[in-house]
Amino acid sequence: MRHFGHIAPEVRKRLFHQEPCEFGADSPARLLSAALGATLYSPATRPRLAEDILKQAGRGVVSMVLCLEDSIDDADVPAGEENLVRHLTDLARRPGADLPLLFVRVRTPGQIPDLVRRLGPAVRTLSGFVLPKFTEERGAPFLAALAAAEAECGRRLFAMPVLESPELLYRETRVQTLEGIFRAVDKYRDRVLALRLGVTDFCSSYGLRRGPDMTAYDVQIVASVIADVVNMLGRADGTGFTVTGPVWEYFRVQERMFKPQLRQSPFLQVQAADLRAQLIEHAMDGLLREISLDHANGLLGKTCIHPSHVLPVHALSVVSHEEFSDAQDILRPERCGGGVLRSAYTNKMNEVKPHRAWAERTLLRAEVFGVANEDIGFVELLAAGLSD
Description:
This protein is an alpha/beta fold. Helix content is 46%, strand content 13%. It has 17 helices and twelve strands. The chain has an eight-stranded parallel β-barrel.
């Protein structure tokens, strides 16, 4: 699979200076963690689950979570497990089916080995499990169960812990909780693909819910948690993990209080005023702003609950030609001693040593999401994806 692989080759050639690379479930973990992109959640109880997965893969989705936890009623868990096993077994019997990276969000550690056994050979359709309400105490049994199931089935299985517990939110327990989470995930570092933020649960602890005009970063108590998670778990010194952005809850807005957050000029320049109106109508202007703030705050990828959110996440993850040029200049072998140089775009300073970690991350993102041509911006990427 590859990002924007659903777009015609001739269109990709027009859009990209460097096209996104191909990758698969067996690719290196470092590549996969950056490539997750918009991870689309789906209840495991959906009656046409296998067809839904194939349809979304055909629309550019590269990672999905099949949920047995908060998205379904407690009473529906046995039926959800049965439905999940049946449909994944069906997918495993379809030779040549192009599947996204598939993860199952479980409720208890015991579900992991149980589902792996019930899947049998069909476990090859799975890339791993999402572990809810993760702390050191609650998370360690999940990770141990994952390691045991992996050894039993002989397939690499990744974990994606969800950071959403009240202990992480409350100031008096936050640092201790983060230290414990680090100990737990560091012990299983090779199996932890990414850490996911559960901002909806954070808000629920205080009876809050952000509106479509607000991002997670406008809710200060949530923003403070994101900052501390990145501070302690997302460092670029080799100890950190990929941390993904919070879910965006809206996909259509009837009435808004504030002005739209999308400038007109980028859309008018490419005669895409109708696209701007469509994005605003479906609350995508708030989503686009939040994705930009995710990147600025060290997050990559995003939890999504609606297919319409996938393309905006991927379009804003593409590396601009300017970013790519700066990153390449910073990482040239002759620059290893440091120093300062003017950007090839003559609009900024590139300081080699302080900007090196940014450049390395940028080139990894460029590998999986591609580099836009010099005259291509996010509007053209959105328009191409929507018109395909």
